């Protein structure tokens, strides 16, 4: 008897839950319609497209409960689904590589701000090397390619409402460069109040009380916003077939002709629609997404999707040996097909935030690589670590500004003078977080050719021509300051205490 009651109650619960979900959805739709009435005609047209994508995401968010993967059903990808880069490189290049380049478009994800590095405005406008910004280096790389092969690979920037205006002002400086630059904008989605599950925006405005009401919904939005912008159709009509997508702050993400040739040389009936560049995991990459086989498809598994009990297993370097660099090669006709058939399937990332006033909100996001399971003949390529050189922190910035790397035509390569190819492990303390502070603490960047590990904590400055070798740890305790003198050579040293060098 009790079983039937339990079953009935369970049935009633799901019906109750279903009604509740429907209520949330109806309330959300009403709120969105009300918001649209506050916009002018042109803005409302764009926002309506954005909101259609958001409604779809919100609907799925209400349906999905718990982790989106069953741990027991995860398998390692089959051997041939992740190819070693050397095997692809061994094929060599054809004489007509220019033909391949004519079918390529380079897309950089340019929606992020430099706030985590203490900078205002788009992250791509931070100087990283010899006064060159991320954007300068990108333009130089593609211009070099276009001149060398006498071709015209265009650059497309996916901006967000946070970066669009500042980026467009800067683009004027590249008008005489041999690179066509296009931009399109990521969608603008409303942040949701965690309790009421309603938008916190009171109008479509973006200033005053609405300044924190909006967000760009992660780079998985590239497919819909690229398609909606009309740019995808324009590029297809020019005969373009593939995009190479990467984060603008990954300085290792240059156009690789071997991977491009591999894509172009597949037989028409087995055309590969998606390549994800992966690389071997180190202890520093334990949070990176990995490729798995799941229900007969290659699939990206992100740490946010892993059940709590399995997080340590996910982070292990033994079970999941590779991670996603977010350098992706994707077929343009396939994107159009999947968008038109509404078949682009990406897991939802629920990103909780607390706003300045203490209000708890959630952002619904997706990741560009998660769509891999929707594409035909998708594969991974295990590339050298040098293709993953992201600059997320001032510690990364120190590495790319140093003599560990040489700069040639916008590309950074590890210096030949470094005897082993691994990058040193650098951890700079909070006094170095902001780029401005970081720059004032170095009279010039130390020689790091023989460095393995550097940890710096507290109030520390570096004089001119300092050389760091082996493992160097410098710790100034609270209230102390350490000035490393000009010309100092520190090899396998721990420096602590107080050392002031003052001008006499």
From TrEMBL:
Positions that bind substrate: 219
Keyword Transferase in annotation: yes
InterPro entries named in the record: Nucleotide-diphossugar_trans, UDPGP_fam, UDPGP_trans
Biological process annotations from GO: glycogen biosynthetic process; UDP-alpha-D-glucose metabolic process
Positions with a binding annotation for UTP: 123, 186, 218, 249, 392
GO function terms (MF aspect): UTP:glucose-1-phosphate uridylyltransferase activity
Catalyzed reaction equations: alpha-D-glucose 1-phosphate + UTP + H(+) = UDP-alpha-D-glucose + diphosphate
Functional pathway: Glycan biosynthesis; glycogen biosynthesis
EC number annotated for this UniProt entry: 2.7.7.9
Keyword match Transferase: yes
Gene3D superfamilies according to UniProt: Hexapeptide repeat proteins, Spore Coat Polysaccharide Biosynthesis Protein SpsA, Chain A
Pfam families: UDPGP
Superkingdom of the organism of origin: Eukaryota
Keywords: Nucleotidyltransferase, Transferase
EC primary class: transferase
Self-association and partners: Homooctamer.
Family: Belongs to the UDPGP type 1 family.
Function: UTP--glucose-1-phosphate uridylyltransferase catalyzing the conversion of glucose-1-phosphate into UDP-glucose, a crucial precursor for the production of glycogen.
Name of the molecule in the record: UTP--glucose-1-phosphate uridylyltransferase
Organism name: Kryptolebias marmoratus (Mangrove killifish)
Lineage of the organism: Eukaryota, Metazoa, Chordata, Craniata, Vertebrata
């Amino acid at each position: 008897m009790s079983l039937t009651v339990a079953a009935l109650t369970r049935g009633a619960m799901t019906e109750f839950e279903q009604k509740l979900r429907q209520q949330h959805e109806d309330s959300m739709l009403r709120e969105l319609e009300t918001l649209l009435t506050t916009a002018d005609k042109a803005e409302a047209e764009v926002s309506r497209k954005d909101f259609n994508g958001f409604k779809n995401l919100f609907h799925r968010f209400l349906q999905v409960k718990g982790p989106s993967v069953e741990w027991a059903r995860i398998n390692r990808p089959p051997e041939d689904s992740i190819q070693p880069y050397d095997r692809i490189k061994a094929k060599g290049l054809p004489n007509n590589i220019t033909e391949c380049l004519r079918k390529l478009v380079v897309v950089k994800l340019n929606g992020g701000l430099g706030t985590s590095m203490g900078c205002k405005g788009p992250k791509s406008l931070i100087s990283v090397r010899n006064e060159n910004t991320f954007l300068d280096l990108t333009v130089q790389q593609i211009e070099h390619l276009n001149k060398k092969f006498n071709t015209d690979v265009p650059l497309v920037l996916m901006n967000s409402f946070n970066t669009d205006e500042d980026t467009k002002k800067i683009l004027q400086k590249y008008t005489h460069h041999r690179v066509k630059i296009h931009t399109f904008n990521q969608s603008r989605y409303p942040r949701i109040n965690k309790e009421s599950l309603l938008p916190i925006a009171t109008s479509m405005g973006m200033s005053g009380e609405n300044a924190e009401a909006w967000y760009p919904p992660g780079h998985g939005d590239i497919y819909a916003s690229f398609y909606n912008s009309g740019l995808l159709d324009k590029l297809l009509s020019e005969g373009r077939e593939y995009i190479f997508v990467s984060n603008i702050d990954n300085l290792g993400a240059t156009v690789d002709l071997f991977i491009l040739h591999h894509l172009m040389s597949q037989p028409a009936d087995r055309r590969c629609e998606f390549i994800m560049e992966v690389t071997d995991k180190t202890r520093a990459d334990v949070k990176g997404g990995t490729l798995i086989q799941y229900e007969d498809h290659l699939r990206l598994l992100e740490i946010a999707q892993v059940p709590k009990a399995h997080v340590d297993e996910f982070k292990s370097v033994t079970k999941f040996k590779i991670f996603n660099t977010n350098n992706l090669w994707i077929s343009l006709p396939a994107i159009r097909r999947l968008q038109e058939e509404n078949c682009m399937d990406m897991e939802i990332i629920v990103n909780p935030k607390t706003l300045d006033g203490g209000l708890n909100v959630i952002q619904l996001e997706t990741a560009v690589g998660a769509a891999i399971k929707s594409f035909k003949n998708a594969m991974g390529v295990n590339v050298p670590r040098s293709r993953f050189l992201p600059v997320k922190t001032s510690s990364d910035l120190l590495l790319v500004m140093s003599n560990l790397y040489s700069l040639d035509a916008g590309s950074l390569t590890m210096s030949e003078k470094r005897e082993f190819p691994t990058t040193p492990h650098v951890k700079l303390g909070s006094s170095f977080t902001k780029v401005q502070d970081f720059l004032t603490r170095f009279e010039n960047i130390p020689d790091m050719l023989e460095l393995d590990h550097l940890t710096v904590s507290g109030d520390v400055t570096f004089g001119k021509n300092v050389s760091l070798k082996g493992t160097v740890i410098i710790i100034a305790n609270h209230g102390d300051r350490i000035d490393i003198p000009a010309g100092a050579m520190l090899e396998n040293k721990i420096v602590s205490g107080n050392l002031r060098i003052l001008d006499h």
